[in-house]
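User: Show me a protein chain along with its predicted structure.
Assistant: Here is one chain, sequence first, then structure tokens.
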Amino acid sequence: MMDLNTLWFVLIVVLFIGFFVLEGFDYGVGILLPFLGRTDTERRRIIHTIGPVWDGNEVWIITAGGAMFAAFPHWYATLFSGFYLALFLLLAALIVRGVAFEFRSKDRHPTWRATWDWMIFVGSAVPALLWGVALGNLLRGVPIDADMHYVGGFFDLLNPYALICGVASFTAFTTHGAIFLNLKSTDPIRTRALRATRTVGPLATAAVLAFAAATYAWTDAFARLGVNPGLVPMTAVGSMLAAGVFVHRARLGWAFAMTCLAIATSTITIFMALYPRVMVSSLNADWSLTIYNASSTPYTLTIMSVIALIFVPIVLLYQGWTYWVFRHRVTADTPLEY
């Protein structure tokens, strides 16, 4: 039977999947905003495609961070202290992004609005890159000593493998956002979003393939998964290729489903290669953090499991209802707030 440590590892992975799938298209829309919106009205319509949901999507990572803190406090402590500068940059970008959404409509001056539009771009592009870098470092390994302390520096995180992971996440999220825009907007934005998808999509597919190859070259995934990595990793690559086929045939609903599947299975693949570790030590494999040496007490995990059983279904129902209410396209008749 699955023990509580494994259960909470799985639940945290589920929270990361929810965050990357939902916030991923938010990042993509923000990255594309200055390029696809040629007038202020068009840029407002682009923002309105994610306006009702972007802040709710960010709750997934807040919940994931809280679950890490409660279930695996040593993982949380080592990660947030070791990746402090990188996470500070990520947090600063997210703050700028949130402020930009609210401030751009406070003044009609073109320079004011253009400045905040570029802040939305920066606040979306930086996290889209850094999340991939962070996950890549978790899997590749970072300098962690026997006391679970990170003993490296900021530039240790900017290794080739982590940067490849960052490029893969950046291009995948951009493609994900472009397809979402095609589904949620009308012409001329929809046509431009389709062109963007056909431009960025092949780059994303190539980056995912490079990420898969680099994972075998620079991590212990080969030793842990073997020549045949299994259904989940193969699905991650296959779904990106399938998304390209559907984009070529202009079947964007199916393409969006495929990018959702690719992001989800890529996330699962990374954590599959990690399990039962949560952070790999590049200094000594025995110093790696695992779901057992980094966890809270069984009593804490039991209480958390009861709380999750009650509230997670409520949150899922509420967010599902939100997406249903705001499922329609943003058209010329849609009232614009941002």
